[in-house]
Amino acid sequence: MERRVCQCSISTADGSALVRLGDTTIVCGVKAEIAEPELDRPNEGFLVPNIDLPALCSPKFKPGPPTEEAQVLSDRLNDVLLASGIISRISLCIEPGKSVWVLYIDAICLNYDGNAFDAALLAMVAALRNTRLPKAAYNEETGRTTCSRRSLLPLQVNKLPISSSFGVFDSTHVLADPTTFEEPLLDTTFSVIMNEDGKLVSVLQLGLGLVGQPGTLDRCIAAAKAHSSDIRNLVYDTSNTS
Amino acid sequence: MHDRALINVEVNIVPFSTGERRKRSRGDKRILELGSTIKSTFEPVVQTSLYPRSEIDIFVHVLQQDGGLLQASINASTLALISAGIPLHDFVCAVTGGVHSTAPMLDLTTLEENDIPHVTVAVMPKTKKVTLVTMETRLHVDRFGDIFKLACEAGQVIHKEMKRAVSERTQKLVTAMEMGPRVVPSADVGDRDAMIDDLNDY
């Protein structure tokens, strides 16, 4: 299965990435804006991930408002990005209580061949790695934040969470990275998200549950560990060559 | 209408496509107008009578823009329709033309579009017929004739490039098709030659 992470050069975005996992293609762009922080969290910025599954990417999506699948995906991605601590929200603070960065992470699926969650998470993570923010300074007197046009600092990205999804067919066979042909036939799907130091960020299971072999989950977690370190190296390679 | 296909155009502009992040709602008037402009550009060009009682959907996704949005969408839609194999009467090549004091300019960027009067022209290169002309800025009527002619000529240049891209892709497809019979090991030598002869007939 071909996996490719390309450093997009969308110059209008602060950071961007293009990911292909098999045939599933996702483009992600990061834009940063300035906002006032919440009153009870004065030195934390915001991360706003969003994914769009338009009608273009697959005949199973009709044109119109975002489908349930897109909304559920967005929500899951939001949970994972916050739980994994990929970017510490405190690092997005410019001036406590007055101004913080808001990172809008928008992903759009160009071709859907199953397993959009893995691809979307990878695209968002790669785009965050690629993001460069201007240096911001808060002016006490005018109450405004000014950004330098020239100096751009890369975002401080911590450990990258990588997701591996599996599906269980007929309660016996475990398939990794299900395609759009396989997805409707699976009783159960689960996603294992791992961090760099082999720590589990999240395990999510949807469906009947693993009936039968008890050791399946452990084997899948081991497979996910190996897979995620491969993918992580891909991401590091692309950002090193850019 | 039962005797022809409907053409439906949907434009989606992603929030990170412009300098300022702006989440455009689906019902945004500018986007709807863009979609309906593209639709009326292609309605006389696509041979819709060959597909009665069906709908042809054109989805335009803008990932990055710096001026010339309408023309790029029209050019992209032409190539997409060709790559889908939908029969067209001709290519549709679009280009923006503008006038800065007296100097004519082509294919303007966003900064230029905001500043100088410009017109978007879409031509069908073989017949030299014009399928779309839109202008939303004020331009002196004396200048209009020149810039219109220039834009039509520019359409011919774009047509050459588009044709080259289409031929390259078709060439790759034909090569792939020719490779097909050779891959099957059990095929007779006679069968293979017969299949390749058939391809040459096309």
The largest beta-sheet of chain B arranges its strands as 4-3-5-6
**What percentage of amino acids of chain B are in beta strands?**
15-25%
The largest interface is:
A-B, 20 and 18 residues
Sequence stretches where pLDDT stays below 50 over 5 or more residues of chain A: none
Count of alpha and pi helical runs of chain B: 5
**Topology of chain B as a string of helices (H) and strands (E):** EHEHEEHEEHH
Rg over C-alpha atoms of chain B, rounded to the nearest angstrom: 21 Å
**Residue share in helix of chain A:** 10-25%
Biggest sheet overview of chain A: 6 strands, mixed
User: Could you tell me the mean pLDDT of chain B?
Assistant: 85
List unreliable stretches of 5+ residues of chain B: 184-202
What does this structure look like?
The complex is a heterodimer of chains A (242) and B (202). Chain A is α+β, with helices and mostly antiparallel strands and 242 residues long. Chain A is 24% helix and 38% strand. Chain A has three helices and twelve strands. Chain A has helices at 68-84, 116-130, 216-241, and strands at residues 3-6, 15-21, 24-35, 46-52, 93-95, 99-111, 132-139, 144-154, 162-169, 173-176, 188-194, 200-207. In chain A, strands 1, 2, 3, 4, 5 and 6 form a six-stranded mixed sheet that branches. Chain A is elongated and about 65 Å long. With 202 residues, chain B is of the alpha+beta class. In chain B, the strands form two sheets. In chain B, strands 4-3-5-6 form a four-stranded antiparallel sheet, sandwiched between helices. In chain B, helix 1 links the parallel strand 1 (6-13) and strand 2. In chain B, helix 1 packs across helix 2 (69-84). Residues 184-202 of chain B have low confidence and may be disordered. The A-B interface holds A 10-13, 16, 27, 29-31, 33, 52, 54-56, 63, 65, 104, 106, 108, 110 and B 8, 10, 12, 14-19, 21, 26, 57, 59, 61, 63-66. Chain B: Belongs to the RNase PH family. Chain B: Residues 6-87, 90-153 form the Exoribonuclease phosphorolytic domain. Chain B: InterPro entries: ExoRNase_PH_dom1, ExoRNase_PH_dom2, ExoRNase_PH_dom2_sf, PNPase/RNase_PH_dom_sf, Ribosomal_Su5_D2-typ_SF, RNase_PH. Chain A: Belongs to the RNase PH family. Chain A: Pfam families: RNase_PH, RNase_PH_C.
